[in-house]
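Archive maintenance. Older records in this collection stored only the sequence; we are now back-filling the structure field for every entry so that each record is complete. The fields below show one back-filled record exactly as it appears after the update. Entries are processed alphabetically, and Protein tyrosine phosphatase is next in the queue.

ARCHIVE ENTRY
Title: Protein tyrosine phosphatase
Organism field: Pedosphaera parvula
Length field: 148
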Amino acid sequence: MPAEKPTVLILCTGNSCRSHLAEGILKAVAGDFLDVQSAGSKPAGYVHPLAIKVMAEIGIDISHHRSKPLTEFLNQKVTTVITVCGNADQVCPIFPGQLNRHHWPFYDPAHAQGTEEEKLQVFRQVRDEIRKVFEAFAAGWKDCESMT
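Back-filled structure field:
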């Protein structure tokens, strides 16, 4: 029987933008060896339409994602918790089986002002920053696993 994939939980306050961008990217590059989830300390109840749009631009579909509370994961074994905003980092509990915790804050693109195109530019910039960090995280994880 294959070993259970380690769970990586990405936390944000609203679970509408940054955490879904990160979840989609990490699933795309590491979904074969990591169980990637996201949640929020105060979930907004929706995934931001511009987050869905900018992810589709890079071939990742997050339209089926849902905004969920971190309490859904309190009784699950979570190996790694990654917070992507300061508020989530401050209220983050310890999860059963948690071995690692990282805090990588990103600007919240939901606060972008201006025209639709100007807002899209902010979402793209944040998406690209998240992509660099989470692709490097996946590569590092894969390297560590190949050494064991």
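Update note: The chain has one domain: 7-137. The CA atoms of residues 83 and 103 lie 5 Å apart.
Entry marked complete.
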